[in-house]
Amino acid sequence: MKSISLPPYAPTLIESTRAIGYTLEAAIADIIDNSISAQASYTDIFFFPIGNSYIAIMDDGCGMAADEIDNAMRYGSQNPNEKRTENDLGRFGLGLKTASLSQCRTLTVVSKQRDCIEARRWDIDHVIKTQDWSLLVLESEEIDQIPHIDNLKKIKSGTLVVWQNLDRLKTGEIDLEQSMGKKMDEMRKHLSLVFHRYINGESGIRRLNIRMNNTSVEPVDP
């Protein structure tokens, strides 16, 4: 008996995982779960619907070194049976990659730790072109072009997640700016409910300030 290695065909798998069924609210909540696991005190969410539209989510958590960000961007990087800390909510979501790429075609993750900034990018069109799990490693000049990178540079440590090429959000929308405004209202309501214990800083829980376009999300206790 012999065995052969059959790695999944990258273009097909990366496109198929986009159809898992994330809503925008659930996708952003998954990213905030990561912020909580990273011991962040705040998470900023920026919606920019004009021109080269994007959504950016930034926290002041512990950040990631080069090997950590590579692992975070790897598909199937964690064993769901591994023991995790009580505050690690990642086991309940489908992860940074699936959540993000359910909404966009370009996912950029930038992280700062010990004065070092690392950036990685999944670009679905690049994966299709190369027909390989080709993760882009950004150079300093490219990092400087990322939206809100100056915000990350000002803090001791943290992570910035940027969604660009928002094809799923644009589908069927005539006016993305108006549509995004409605989605922001829905998002605020969703986050105020889902994370109300963290926003309040209830006993035994580290307080998390969630802001959307510089306005704090107020908790709503169901």
Q: How many runs of DSSP E, i.e. beta strands? A: 8
Dominant shape? globular
Helix and strand content put the structural class at alpha+beta
Total domain count: 1
CATH class bucket? Alpha Beta
The helix tally amounts to 10
Strand content: 15-25%
Helix and strand element order: HHEEHHEEHEHHEHHHEE
Question: Level of helix content?
Answer: 25-40%
Strand order of the largest sheet: 5-4-3-6-2-1-7-8
InterPro entries: HATPase_C_sf
Protein name: ATP-binding protein
GO molecular function, one term: ATP binding
Keywords: ATP-binding, Nucleotide-binding
3D architecture notes:
This protein is α+β, with helices and mostly antiparallel strands and 222 residues long. The chain has one domain (10-80, 88-184): Heat Shock Protein 90, CATH 3.30.565.10. Helices cover 36% and strands 20% of the residues. It contains 10 helices and 8 strands. Helix 1 (10-16) runs antiparallel to helix 5 (124-130). Mean pLDDT is 88; it is low at 84-94.
Secondary structure elements and pairings:
Blueprint: H1 10-16, H2 24-37, E1 42-48, E2 54-59, H3 66-73, H4 95-101, E3 106-113, E4 116-123, H5 124-130, E5 136-137, H6 140-143, H7 149-153, E6 158-164, H8 167-170, H9 176-194, H10 196-200, E7 209-212, E8 215-216
Parallel strand pairs: 1-7
Antiparallel strand pairs: 1-2, 2-6, 3-4, 3-6, 4-5, 7-8
Helix pairs in contact: 1-5, 2-4
